[in-house]
Give the backbone structure.
Amino acid sequence: MEISVLTLFPEIFHSYMGVSIMKRAVERGIVDFSVHNLRDYTHDRHRTVDDYPYGGGPGMVLKPGPVSEAVDAIKADGRETLTILLSAGGRLFTQKMAEDFSREGRRLLFIAGRYEGVDERVAIGVADMELSIGDYVLTGGELPALVIIDALVRLMPGALGDEASAEEESFAWGILDYPHYTRPPEWKGMRVPDMLLSGNHKEIARWRRKEALRKTLRMRPELIEREKDRLTEEDRKLIIEIKEEGYGRD
Ligand code: SAM
């Protein structure tokens, strides 16, 4: 898959994409990653990318011209491209979108905004969609782009060492992940649950499902409501048990 980013700060991407799973995905050719500097698409001596907002107010706005020119230059090779503008006002990015993107045949091109944001005509006439990573405002679109790239690349076949590990994580089944433990069996007075030491794989699977449901009921009850049509009979029994036992710590 080809992933490109348009940014004023290309260096932000070099460190993150140069380590661990992202690095391996690039080295294995699973991802063809490129970063493009927005300033390379300006034509004045000062390489101006921003200007004052019409109507007044604080801050500067990224001009539509350089963004549009950069996107056209990247797309000039004729490859089909899905252009994504990072924006606090965009649709909320989800694990489901990460799954869809990981199967996407088109090049993904991310536009990272800065300052007060990007001239609205980029959202209207250049980008195919606007995405937000959460209801908070960051300084720029670089971290949101990396968040989305990380979430989708790790789902691509061959990116993770253990293929099973992405299938059992939070949100993969619509609910949160079960708790994980490793050695030692007792640490600072806290014991690993006996069930995990039992060697009974069927019972361990049931315990994990129950604890995943318990954690979801405690932390994100709205996910249980959202997934209610996909819950199995066994899940419903487990939820009744959890409600009798309690949701655990706060
Ligand atoms: N004035 C904008 C607003 O109130 O929505 C905020 C602009 S923000 C300081 C600058 C850039 O950071 C945005 O253009 C966008 O690219 C990026 N950004 C900030 N928060 C984001 C979020 N939650 N999701 C995606 N991108 C975000």
Remarks:
- Residues 86-89, 112-114, 116-118, 132-134, 136-141, 144 surround S-adenosylmethionine (CB under 6 Å).
- The mean pLDDT is 96.
- Residues 168-245 form a domain with the Trp Operon Repressor; Chain A fold (CATH 1.10.1270.20).
